[in-house]
Amino acid sequence: MSSHTNKDEAAGAPLWSVAAIRLPFTSAHRTNLFNDATADNFITGVTIGLFNYKDSEVSDGKVAHAGWNLKTTGSGGRAGRVSQETLVALTNSADA
């Protein structure tokens, strides 16, 4: 059974995605990470969120692959630094 779905909802996100920010695998942590754009929510000076990008959202080249991506945005001395890490590549996330 898969640990994720292609639905753009917190319950469809991979539970283990919170390992990237060194938190226990809980539904509450996964929900807090989903679409998060709150600065300093998990790590001071950083905004971290988990997003499910559709095929149409990757055409601009800012996201490496459709699917579940961890977006990290720096602030302060790291302002303007944005990284995207693909955690789950989906071949068809048109329903996301």
The number of domains:
1
The description of the largest β-sheet is: 3 strands, antiparallel
Mean pLDDT: 86
Helical percentage: under 10%
The helix/strand class is mainly beta
Runs in which pLDDT lies below 50 for 5 or more consecutive residues are none
Distance between the termini: 19 Å
Can you describe this structure?
The structure is a single chain. By secondary structure, the protein is mainly beta. The chain has one domain (10-89). The protein is built from 1 helix and 3 strands. The protein has one helix at 27-33, and strands spanning 46-53, 67-74, 82-89. A 3-stranded antiparallel β-sheet has the order 1-2-3, with no helix packed on it. It is flat, with a radius of gyration of 13 Å.
Summarize the structure.
The chain is mostly beta strands and 96 residues long. Helices cover 7% and strands 25% of the residues. The protein has one helix and three strands.
Question: How are the SSEs ordered, and which strands pair?
Answer:
Blueprint lengths: L26 H7 L12 E8 L13 E8 L7 E8 L7
Antiparallel strand pairs: 1-2, 2-3
